[in-house]
């Protein structure tokens, strides 16, 4: 079972078994459509069912089914919420989940040359656009870390078959 971290139970909320949840999904409500939640605990992955939830500011509060005690709810806090990757909805052909881009090689086509910059280590969400975090590796021009805006101006193509992202980026940056 391949899983992906989609959120985290952060704290208790009230005294009746509710918890605060920080979602890593673009739309926080999406998190509640993945049931049961798989919780990554020190004792292993355990499923829990959420029977009620609501938005609370930028995050969620949720009630764990069968738990009506604050102290018991507290035992779930600080744990990641996982989802099986195959349960994620299909995207349009030119859209990608961040986890699909992580690990792809990045090649810059700059001034007529092809220069390997490294691999996608992660992505950052900014107010304006997402940013690829590229880490140099043994096959790249250097071992530097680069931040490349994930926009059409710089990212020219993505090939999942070749596990490669082509960009227009000055390697000196």
Automatic annotation (TrEMBL):
Pfam families: PRC_RimM, RimM. GO terms for cellular component: cytoplasm; ribosome. Keywords: Chaperone, Cytoplasm, Ribosome biogenesis, rRNA processing. Residues 98-169 form the Ribosome maturation factor RimM PRC barrel domain. Residues 5-86 form the RimM N-terminal domain. SUPFAM superfamilies: PRC-barrel domain, Translation proteins. Its main location: cytoplasm. The PRC barrel domain binds ribosomal protein uS19. PANTHER family: RIBOSOME MATURATION FACTOR RIMM. An accessory protein needed during the final step in the assembly of 30S ribosomal subunit, possibly for assembly of the head region. Essential for efficient processing of 16S rRNA. May be needed both before and after RbfA during the maturation of 16S rRNA. It has affinity for free ribosomal 30S subunits but not for 70S ribosomes. This is Ribosome maturation factor RimM. The gene is rimM.
